[in-house]
Design brief:
SH3 type barrels, 5-stranded antiparallel β-sheet, 75 residues, homoheptamer, 1 helix, mainly beta
Chain lengths: 75, 75, 75, 75, 75, 75, 75
Amino acid sequence: MSETTLAILASSIGSQILVRLKGGRELRGKLKSYDQHLNIVLEDAEELKQNGEPKKHGLILIRGDSIVLISPVSK
Amino acid sequence: MSETTLAILASSIGSQILVRLKGGRELRGKLKSYDQHLNIVLEDAEELKQNGEPKKHGLILIRGDSIVLISPVSK
Amino acid sequence: MSETTLAILASSIGSQILVRLKGGRELRGKLKSYDQHLNIVLEDAEELKQNGEPKKHGLILIRGDSIVLISPVSK
Amino acid sequence: MSETTLAILASSIGSQILVRLKGGRELRGKLKSYDQHLNIVLEDAEELKQNGEPKKHGLILIRGDSIVLISPVSK
Amino acid sequence: MSETTLAILASSIGSQILVRLKGGRELRGKLKSYDQHLNIVLEDAEELKQNGEPKKHGLILIRGDSIVLISPVSK
Amino acid sequence: MSETTLAILASSIGSQILVRLKGGRELRGKLKSYDQHLNIVLEDAEELKQNGEPKKHGLILIRGDSIVLISPVSK
Amino acid sequence: MSETTLAILASSIGSQILVRLKGGRELRGKLKSYDQHLNIVLEDAEELKQNGEPKKHGLILIRGDSIVLISPVSK
């Protein structure tokens, strides 16, 4: 039996997730909220860089349309 | 429990936000209004440049479809 | 409280606006009309060129889907 | 007060218009019909070339989704 | 007065048409059917090549979403 | 009179078809099912390569949105 | 007679599938859930690399809009 695909997000509220955008950039942060369009709000978000330190963003709203995949960060 | 994703915008009206467009350009300005398509109106907007001074736009309407992410600018 | 995002267009009818298209081209002209898809009609429109004189178009209908941002031209 | 954006097409039926496509190609012809998706039918259409003679197409149906802008050709 | 844009297709059933795809490829064949999404079925279709012989496809269904323009082939 | 465009698929169930994807890749296989979004399921599918042997996939579900054209493989 | 296209997913719940994304990247994992937008949740997912070891993701939600094709991995 199939669970709903968004259950993975419901159970990740307050936890670290990784979000990959079209074009390949990746953001990581604590999932604060999401909606059915897969718009995502992250707290304490940071953008991962190929080389060097991640760039800190704080609070961030990502348009679902820009997202390729989302993955909970295992602790 | 999940808040609505647009709450981050509701609470940023009148404050500085950063908007990143598809292709990588970034604009910064005071959030004047938004709608459910994520169309955004900024006041005193400026476009950030890789090198040199930001370009001033004043009032600006950005199509939601062009937006990758939005972040309140921390003071 | 949030105004509607299209109010910026309603108050620009008859005034000069700048329209940036996907890909980076920019057009400038007097806003004659618009609709909820952000289709835009400009009068006395001209297309700005990196080098040299703008290209004159006269009346022009721009598909909303091609538009990245719109800004009233300050006088 | 705002006219409808498609009025520019209604008043161009039977007249020469210029249509610019995504990617930059341009077609010119006599506007025969259009619909609310901005699908356009041109008669005696020709495709403008950077160098040399335009390519003649005769009757042509252009998908609205491929169109960036439309401009009546001034006489 | 504006005819419907699809009338050009209705009157081309059984006749040769040219279909240009996004990216620039062109197909030619006898129009067998179409629908309101501009999905197109061609018989005896062939794909035109920059150099050399066209590639024969026989029957072919083209997704409307991939189509830029359609033109009846004049005899 | 126009047939429906999907009739070409209905009559190809159980037969070999060729599917061309956006970007130019081509897959070939036995059509098992399709839907109104032009999502396609192929059995004994293989991906055609410019050079060398086709890559075997077995059963495969192709998103309609990725498809440019579909053609029955003539025997 | 045509089965529904999503039946291939229904019968793959709990089994290994391969997912190819726009741009060509491929992920492999155990199908946990899917929905009618073709959003896909994989468990024990890994991203296949041209050279070297696959990158492990664990649980992953892939937006249907980013997917080109899905194929059950034959055992």
